[in-house]
Each structure stands twice: as structure tokens, then as C-alpha cells.
């Protein structure tokens, strides 16, 4: 065994699409993993440092007040990639949520089931130092600096749990459907409706609370230096009040700034809309949403069809 010189960090580290530790975990079929903190390279820490320092003034200007309060309560170190166990020490007492390290893609039902159990599947890799702009793949900056501060807020955390309930309902309906063709068709439509609602709220939502200016609360925005400003300030962006029947039928793409954002009034309103989403699902109103993005994969369908519903 060759000894590594002291203080010399591995060059590859835990970098998005270049992390042997993750590749091996995936090969072994492991989804839930540990965070091997010593594997982070100096470049990984430098990427965190640069991303964090340039986001601070943008968060002050454009982030929703619940995010501002949340990120302060997590005591994140601006200088180093966070340890998930440190984050959880601050997060768990507030709402019961925990960041749970994962090796990559989590099939849709498992993702929502984690939320229902107040676990947040968290990517532990870091984007490359020469690619600090918005990436379609999540990384630890997106998940910890973009998502987790919101999980400190009770109404927001309850909304995520409600998404988990909604996924349970979708799985139950699908497993009760005896006609296999109808089963897949309806389930695909239900998953698209849930994914679209999640996208336009949890990932790219804007909020206009009474008496306060327009701000962002979606994690895709809060972890993107360019799009955060664009979403709130640009005259080119379309912004409309949150409307469930529109969102469930609205396609989205992940490789460029969103052309369209939906504005909520409060997290209580978002919660009520997820509750309504579940009701509509039960009434069959989500079985024929408009075609388009996102695509629903075999793995996503299978995760619902084979879910253990207890
Ligand atoms: Fe995300």
C-alpha cells in the first residue's frame, strides 16, 4: 500500500462525474452511502469557497427571508465543503429533517419516500472548479446551500413531507390498477404532474409575501448566481401567480434559464396546493396531463410499481 504524503489531498476528489468512490458505490448497487470527507480535494474546497462567497451578496438581495434565516441557523463554513453530520446537528432539532448522502440518481418514489421520512437525499460530489455556473446535475452546493436552508422552516418542511404522502397515493393507485397498459399510462401522467409541481415550486419557485418584495425560494435559483438575479429582476422572465392546473400541464427543460416562473404567496399556500394535487390524483384528474418534459424513466415507474406500501 503506498502512503500518501501528509497534507496532500487526492487530485480527483469527489468531483461531479469524476469520483471513483461514487462509481464504485453505484457498481455495487449502493444508493445510500457515507460521506468520505477525507476524499475531498483542495479543488473541491476551493469550488465551495468561490461559489459560497459570490452567492452571499445575491442571497442578501434576492433570497426569501426564510432562506436567509435558515442558512444562518445552519452555521455553514464558507471556507470548506460541509460535513453532513455537522449540518444535521443544526437542522434536525428544527424540523426533524436530515441530509442523507446518496450515490447519485434516486428513483422518483424512493426520493419522495425519503422526504416523507424527513430525510433529504443529498449529493456529496462537488462541481468542477472550472464549471461554477448552473449545472443540470445536482451537487453538494446545490443540495446543501440551495435546498437544506429551506428545510429549517416548518411550513416548508411539512410541504416536502406532503409531497411524500402524494407519492404514496400515486403508488397505491398504480398498484391497485389491474390493467397493465392503463397502469403505466396513468402512473406516468401522475409522476409528471408531481415532478412539474416540484420543479416550479421547490426548485424554481418565487414568492411574494404580503408587504414584502418579490424573492426566490426555489433551490435551483438559490444555488445559481446568474439565474437568481434573472428570475427576480429580468424583464424577460415571465412570472405568474401559482396555479396548479397550469403547472401540472407545463413542460420544462433543464439546460437553460427557465422562461417561466410561478409566484407563491406563502409556504402555507404551497402546502395547500400539494394537498389539492393529492386530491386531484385520487379523483383521476392527473391521469391525462399534457405530454412533454420531464421524461419518466423505467426506474421511476418501477420504483412506484414495486414500492412496499406496508
Ligand atoms: Fe434540487
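Sequence proposed for the structure above (310 residues):
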Amino acid at each position: 500500500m503506498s502512503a500518501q504524503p501528509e497534507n496532500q489531498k487526492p487530485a480527483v476528489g469527489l468531483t461531479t462525474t469524476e469520483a471513483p468512490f461514487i462509481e464504485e458505490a453505484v457498481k455495487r448497487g449502493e444508493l445510500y452511502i457515507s460521506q468520505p470527507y477525507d476524499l475531498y480535494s483542495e479543488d473541491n474546497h476551493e469550488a465551495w469557497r468561490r461559489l459560497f462567497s459570490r452567492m452571499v451578496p445575491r442571497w442578501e438581495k434576492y433570497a426569501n427571508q426564510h432562506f436567509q434565516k435558515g442558512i444562518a441557523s445552519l452555521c455553514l463554513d464558507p471556507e470548506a465543503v460541509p460535513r453532513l453530520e455537522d449540518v444535521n446537528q443544526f437542522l434536525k432539532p428544527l424540523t426533524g429533517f436530515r441530509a442523507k448522502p446518496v450515490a447519485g440518481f434516486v428513483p422518483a418514489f424512493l426520493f419522495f419516500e425519503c422526504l416523507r421520512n424527513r430525510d433529504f437525499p443529498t449529493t456529496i460530489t462537488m462541481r468542477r472548479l472550472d464549471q461554477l455556473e448552473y449545472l443540470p446535475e445536482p451537487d453538494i452546493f446545490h443540495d446543501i446551500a440551495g435546498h437544506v436552508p429551506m428545510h429549517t422552516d416548518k411550513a416548508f418542511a411539512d410541504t416536502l413531507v406532503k409531497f411524500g404522502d402524494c407519492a404514496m397515493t400515486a403508488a397505491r393507485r398504480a398498484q391497485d390498477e389491474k390493467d397493465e397498459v392503463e397502469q403505466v399510462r396513468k402512473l406516468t401522467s401522475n409522476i409528471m404532474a408531481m415532478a412539474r409541481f416540484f420543479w416550479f415550486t421547490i426548485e424554481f419557485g418565487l414568492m411574494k409575501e404580503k408587504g414584502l418584495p418579490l424573492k426566490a425560494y426555489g433551490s435551483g435559483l438559490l444555488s445559481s448566481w446568474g439565474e437568481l438575479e434573472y428570475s427576480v429582476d429580468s424583464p424577460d422572465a415571465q412570472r405568474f401567480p401559482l396555479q396548479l392546473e397550469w403547472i401540472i400541464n407545463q413542460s420544462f427543460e433543464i439546460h437553460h434559464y427557465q422562461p417561466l416562473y410561478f409566484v407563491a404567496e406563502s409556504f402555507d399556500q404551497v402546502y395547500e396546493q400539494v394537498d389539492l394535487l393529492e386530491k386531484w390524483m385520487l379523483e383521476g384528474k392527473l391521469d391525462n396531463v399534457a405530454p412533454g418534459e420531464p421524461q419518466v424513466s423505467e426506474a421511476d415507474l418501477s420504483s412506484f410499481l414495486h414500492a412496499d406500501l406496508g
